[in-house]
Write a structure and sequence with these properties.
The chain has 351 residues and is mainly alpha-helical. The protein folds into two domains: 88 residues, no CATH class; 242 residues, MetI-like (MetI-like fold, Orthogonal Bundle). Helices cover 74% and strands 2% of the residues. The protein has 14 helices and two strands. The protein has a two-stranded antiparallel sheet. Strand 1 and strand 2 form a beta hairpin. Helix 3 crosses helix 14 and helix 13 runs antiparallel to helix 14. It starts with a helix and ends with a helix.
Length: 351
Amino acid sequence: MTEKKALSAGLLALGAAGLAVSLIMDFSGSENTIRGPLLVIGAILALVGLYCIPTKKYHRSIINFIFLFPLLFAFGVTVIIPLLLGIGYSFTDWNGVVIKNVVGISNYTTMFRDPSFIWSVLLTFLFVIFNMILVNLIGFALALLCTAQMRGIGFFRASYFLPNLIGGIVLGYIWQFVFNNVLVQITAKTIGLQNSILATTGTAFWAIIAVYIWQYAGYIMLIYVTGLTTIPGDVLEASRIDGAKGIETLFKIKIPMIASTITICTFLTLTSAFKQFDVNMALTNGTGSVADFMGSYLTNGTQMLALNIYNTAISKNSYALGQAKAVLFFVILACVSILQVRISNSREVEM
């Protein structure tokens, strides 16, 4: 037992030392090629040392942790560490390569004084509200259609889901061609209107909403289909025997019994709409005029928050300011998502 304890402690110490040295070399900018293998070897030694701990009480927990470690490690490296580093970068003058000075909350004050950023935030909230309602309503209506007793249901399900398989960039350029060419020719011949709906900010915003609904409603439909098909058939049969009509069955049986599905779909729609980027960039690239907003003339009338952050960091080469906007974006998305889930869960209990 003593030898096993000593072996475990030694392996843990060597693993921790290897991990620490490799991380120090990485953050110090060392170009030594040994830091990668040293990180892997340190992690392996630490896990072996953890496995060798002579304990029966916590052995199962240790085994579970070892199996979860690859996923936890990948999540930490790709999400947690970049998030923490990004929060730190937002208080500096980071240019994407080096940090020269710590500027405190200067990036945040600059951000809130920027009319184009405030416009993007308001536009994003408006976009989320419309899409969260419309996508769920249309997706649920399609799910009701695709669970009806009719021929060709598989074909309809596949057809409605197909737009979700097209990448956002490709989808944006396809619909840009449709709006700027096909629809213009149709409206020019029918009502004499020769302007594209992407030419003005208001109509372009609704065009983005329409494309997003066309892409995402089929995906939400499949989740609703899953929820509707899990409703016990004997419950629906009992309601028909009791004389319940179609509308009564829908609102008093089907919707209450898929309350958890509605929560999931609402959450997915909310987070996806907030993170809208590719369709926005491909369809309008955020362009659009706003005559007077906070005393300024804006040229980013259709620019969502994610695209605004990208343009700030990449196009304008203001990485620290873009990171500050990204931190605020994370806080907004986290707060809204938590609030939505709590409200939906309370509604589930009431149903």
